[in-house]
Design goal:
Blueprint: H1 10-61, E1 67-74, E2 78-83, E3 90-95, E4 100-104, E5 112-114, E6 117-128, E7 131-138
Antiparallel strand pairs: 1-6, 2-3, 2-5, 3-4, 6-7
């Protein structure tokens, strides 16, 4: 003889399992989106730091007119990266979510702004107001 006591609520059990599964999927998707955004922000920090590091090396060389060329990718999680705008010896990353991060640099920058996308940049040591500074500009193709 079959025991059919649990059959009455089988539809309800199935509905609960489906709702719980849907919630888990939504939570996993939100987590993955957050992780992808964090990775993109980390990439932006890394690229901005790489530019500042090479600019500092150019600045430390003290060779007026020396030029370095590098290719960088600024991810779309960034609104802009600004070098030397508010402080000549700092750079700032403004993220698309509205947060800002400012970092000190070991060199003085000629004001420059980079927007998301691929860039081929020239970093050149110049003299401004009797002091060395590094200018950042798009390199000619």
């Amino acid at each position: 003889m079959l025991d059919d006591r649990g059959v009455d609520f089988l539809g309800m059990r199935l509905a609960i399992v489906l709702v719980a599964s849907a919630l888990l999927i939504v939570m996993a998707a939100a987590y993955m989106k957050g992780q992808a955004n964090k990775a993109s922000m980390d990439e932006a920090r890394r690229e901005a730091g790489r530019i500042a590091s090479l600019a500092s090396a150019e600045y430390a060389s003290g060779c007026l007119g020396s030029v370095s060329v590098l290719s960088v990718y600024i991810p779309s999680s960034v609104r802009r990266v600004a070098y030397g705008l508010e402080d000549a010896r700092a750079y700032a990353i403004e993220f698309a979510d509205g947060t800002n991060e400012t970092y000190a640099a070991a060199c003085r920058f000629v004001p420059a702004t980079l927007y998301p996308g691929r860039h081929r940049l020239e970093l050149e040591t110049t003299m401004i107001d009797g002091e060395y500074a590094v200018s950042i500009r798009e390199a000619a193709e």
